[in-house]
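We emphasize that the prediction below concerns an isolated chain of 156 residues; any contacts that depend on oligomerization or on bound cofactors are therefore not represented. The input was used exactly as deposited, without trimming of termini.
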Amino acid sequence: MEQFTVPQFIDVEDKIIGPITVRQFIIMLVGILLMALFYKLFDFTLFVVLALFVFILTVTFAFVKVNGTPFHYFLLNLIQTFKKPRLRVWRKDDTLVKALEIENPIAAAPAAPRRAAYSSSRLNELSLIVDTQGSYQGEADDSVTITRNKNLADFS
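Result of the prediction step, given as a token string:
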């Protein structure tokens, strides 16, 4: 069986010139080309203002990392976050009604049976019964005791 070397550190970018990666080099190259273009097109004062702005953007995009990710990924995630709604609410009733309308627009939706609401103490007791796998029988409730005794009588 052949052995292959598994690449390590695949999340680390390759360095080409000292500590500068390919991505950083390309970003700096674009920034320098923009500054050279501004030098040829505009007068000196406007060139200085625009070159300073481009320099700050170039350094930010090339070297700044937010939470370990490059700045341009952070900026893209920020834009996507602001485009999405801040609050997402799932309304089960709305989706159920829409699904029923799609399946059969003429038939009326049947009323769902209401379940008995349990108090928090009863829920705690039920969870304790489930956790102990039935070893704990719960508080002495007459209806539950009668049902248990009746079920036990059926087996004897």
